[in-house]
């Protein structure tokens, strides 16, 4: 298969900094779309993978799965896009397409293993996939998404992961008018959860350990804020929430949040703590409560999320960085020092 070389930013080892490198992309096949990348969001998963904190990283590794760009070339059988279209690519670039999950539009749960945008197995070039910290990417048209024309492009990039990661469980558990919904943690995921739950019509309650985030939670759309370090506030709100979206990736006491659920309430975890979270049996049994998890969404649902955000004018709160600032951004990410998502201006890579 013919390939072409593009500039990218990646790492050669877990302890190594990210630096500029050259990677190969395939020339478009019949169903492919080539995308000139304009912006790429920075997800905590990028850092985990680059540093092999989850294990299984293949090097060299080029992260990035919150991609917004412009179509620069299309294959002969592409019907969904034309050159010049503004498009997005999220966490997936392929799946088996034949298993029950794929047939139901749930490619994120592909039973034969989907192909991640980076650190996956490229079916065409037979090596690891490379992500959006690069000039261009080539993706099958079925895994490319349309960007609503009214949305800020840089602010849209994080919707491709943070947006769908929060939208999918909120929709699945039927969040909407008449529901009181808690969002635990106000970071890259949590701030999107607040915006989306509020737009869905839910009474939205932010639960935070930090009094300094109360004003910002209300700015984002929260109807109420519970300070989880205040025992009196937690006791006062026990048994009041229909649903809780837990966006925290650090270790925390899950039982304290389960106590806030009403009978038949559900807490869904989208944060990914490094170590197991102990769950007490009697945090669940007396109220017939549920504790579950969720990950991103399928392509159809991700497009639905983008359209929903277009209708409600929802984008991520971002801080723009240049490509060469990525190593410093990773260190700040570890400290939670960003409101609320870094986005790379990819023009800075093309300048070098």
Distance between the termini: 28 Å
Radius of gyration: 20 Å
User: How many domains is the backbone divided into?
Assistant: 2
CATH superfamily grouping of the largest domain: Medium-chain alcohol dehydrogenases, catalytic domain
C-alpha geometry? globular
CATH class of the largest domain: Alpha Beta
**Main β sheet profile:** 7 strands, mixed
Strand proportion, as a percent range, falls in 25-35%
Number of distinct helices = 11
Low-pLDDT segments:
none
Structural class: alpha/beta
| CATH fold descriptor of the largest domain | Quinone Oxidoreductase, Chain A, domain 1
Q: How would you spell out the order of helices and strands?
A: EEEHEEEHEEEHHEHEHEHEHEEHEHEH
Q: What is the second-level CATH architecture of the largest domain?
A: Alpha-Beta Complex
The level of helicity is: 10-25%
Number of strands: 17
pLDDT averaged over residues: 95
Structural write-up:
By secondary structure, the chain is of the alpha/beta class. The chain has two domains: 194 residues, Quinone Oxidoreductase, Chain A, domain 1 (Alpha-Beta Complex), CATH 3.90.180.10; 132 residues, Rossmann fold (3-Layer(aba) Sandwich). It is 23% helix and 27% strand. The chain contains eleven helices and 17 strands. Strands 3, 4, 5, 8, 9, 16 and 17 form a seven-stranded mixed sheet that branches. A six-stranded parallel sheet has the order 12-11-10-13-14-15. Helix 4 crosses helix 9.
């Amino acid at each position: 298969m013919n390939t072409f070389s593009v500039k990218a930013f990646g790492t050669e080892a877990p302890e190594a900094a990210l630096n500029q490198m050259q990677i190969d992309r395939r020339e478009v096949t019949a169903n492919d779309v080539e995308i000139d990348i304009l912006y790429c969001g920075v997800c905590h998963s990028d850092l985990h993978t680059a540093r092999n904190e989850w294990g299984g990283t293949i090097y060299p590794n080029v992260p990035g799965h919150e991609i917004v760009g412009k179509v620069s070339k299309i294959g002969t059988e592409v019907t969904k896009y034309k050159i010049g279209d503004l498009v997005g690519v999220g966490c997936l670039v392929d799946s088996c397409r034949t298993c029950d999950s794929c047939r139901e539009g749930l490619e994120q749960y592909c039973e034969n293993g989907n192909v991640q945008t980076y650190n996956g197995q490229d079916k065409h070039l037979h090596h690891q996939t490379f992500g959006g910290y690069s000039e261009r990417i080539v993706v099958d048209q079925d895994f490319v998404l349309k960007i609503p024309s009214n949305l800020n492009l840089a602010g849209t990039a994080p919707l491709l992961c943070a947006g769908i990661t929060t939208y999918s469980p909120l929709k699945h558990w039927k969040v909407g008018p008449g529901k009181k919904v808690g969002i635990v943690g106000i970071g890259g995921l949590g701030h999107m959860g607040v915006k989306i739950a509020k737009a869905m019509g839910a009474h939205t309650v932010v639960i935070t350990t930090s009094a300094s985030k109360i004003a910002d939670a209300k700015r984002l759309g929260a109807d109420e804020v519970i300070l989880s370090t205040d025992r009196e506030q937690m006791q006062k709100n026990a048994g009041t929430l229909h649903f809780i979206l837990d966006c925290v990736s650090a270790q925390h006491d899950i039982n304290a949040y389960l106590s806030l659920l009403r009978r038949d309430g559900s807490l869904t975890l989208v944060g990914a703590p490094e170590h197991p979270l102990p769950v007490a049996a009697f945090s669940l049994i007396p109220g017939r409560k549920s504790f579950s998890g969720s990950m991103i969404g399928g392509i159809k649902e991700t497009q639905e999320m983008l359209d929903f955000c277009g209708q409600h004018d929802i984008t991520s709160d971002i801080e723009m960085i240049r490509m060469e600032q990525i190593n410093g951004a990773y260190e700040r990410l570890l400290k939670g020092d960003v409101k609320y998502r870094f986005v790379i201006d990819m023009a800075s890579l093309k300048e070098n």
